[in-house]
């Protein structure tokens, strides 16, 4: 049965931008190769951790929303666990209300980004 999931992982802060993109690409490819479908991705960037993890106080956060078979989540989390670049991860199954909330959040984010994109060229032209 195909469900919608949301996974957030925290990568170690010592990664370069290229290494972070490679890590994300690895998990996106893993999802799609196993019959999953990527719904949405968002890079939350480098953030302060609530408490030190492995003597680190910051980490790169990344969110992936996807649709996949319920058996796939165990495979994904096993890969997170084996990857030394990943210091924490959490995968959550989304119910219909959570899916609706996620869609609303994406629409609000897109609406906020659109006016900012329209205003930027106007200020540059002046």
Mean pLDDT: 88
Number of strands: 4
The low-pLDDT segments are none
> Based on CA inertia axes, which overall geometry fits?
globular
Strand content: 35-45%
Please identify the structural class as seen in this structure: alpha+beta
- Report the CATH architecture of the largest domain: 2-Layer Sandwich
How many domains would you count in the coordinates? 2
Distance between the termini: 55 Å
Order of helices and strands: EHEEHEH
- Highest-level CATH class of the largest domain: Alpha Beta
- Radius of gyration from the alpha-carbon trace, in angstroms: 17 Å
Strand order of the largest sheet: 2-3-1-4
- What can be said about the biggest beta sheet? 4 strands, antiparallel
CATH superfamily of the largest domain: Ribosomal protein S6/Translation elongation factor EF1B
Summarize, please.
With 126 residues, the chain is of the alpha+beta class. It is 46% helix and 40% strand.
What's the structural blueprint in terms of helices and strands?
Layout: E1 2-11, H1 17-33, E2 37-53, E3 56-69, H2 72-82, E4 86-94, H3 96-125
Antiparallel strand pairs: 1-3, 1-4, 2-3
Descriptors:
single chain; 126 residues; alpha+beta; Alpha-Beta Plaits; 2 domains; 4-stranded antiparallel beta sheet; 4 strands; globular
What does this protein structure show overall?
It is a single chain. The chain is of the alpha+beta class. It folds into two domains: 2-94, Ribosomal protein S6/Translation elongation factor EF1B (Alpha-Beta Plaits, 2-Layer Sandwich), CATH 3.30.70; 96-126. Helices cover 46% and strands 40% of the residues. It contains three helices and four strands. It has helices at 17-33, 72-82, 96-125, and strands at residues 2-11, 37-53, 56-69, 86-94. Strands 2-3-1-4 form a four-stranded antiparallel sheet. A hairpin with a 2-residue loop joins strand 2 and strand 3 (56-69). The protein starts with a strand and ends with a helix.
């Amino acid at each position: 049965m195909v469900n919608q999931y949301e996974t957030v992982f925290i990568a170690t802060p010592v990664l370069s931008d290229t290494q972070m993109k490679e890590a994300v690409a690895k998990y996106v490819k893993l999802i799609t190769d196993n019959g999953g479908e990527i719904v949405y991705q968002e890079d939350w960037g480098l953030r302060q951790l609530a408490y030190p993890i492995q003597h680190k106080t910051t980490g790169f956060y990344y969110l992936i929303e996807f649709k996949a078979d319920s058996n796939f989540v165990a495979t994904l989390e096993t890969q997170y666990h084996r990857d030394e670049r990943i210091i924490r991860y959490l995968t959550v199954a989304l119910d219909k209300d959570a899916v609706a909330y996620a869609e609303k959040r994406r629409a609000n984010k897109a609406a906020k980004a659109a006016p900012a994109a329209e205003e930027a060229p106007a200020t540059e032209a002046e």
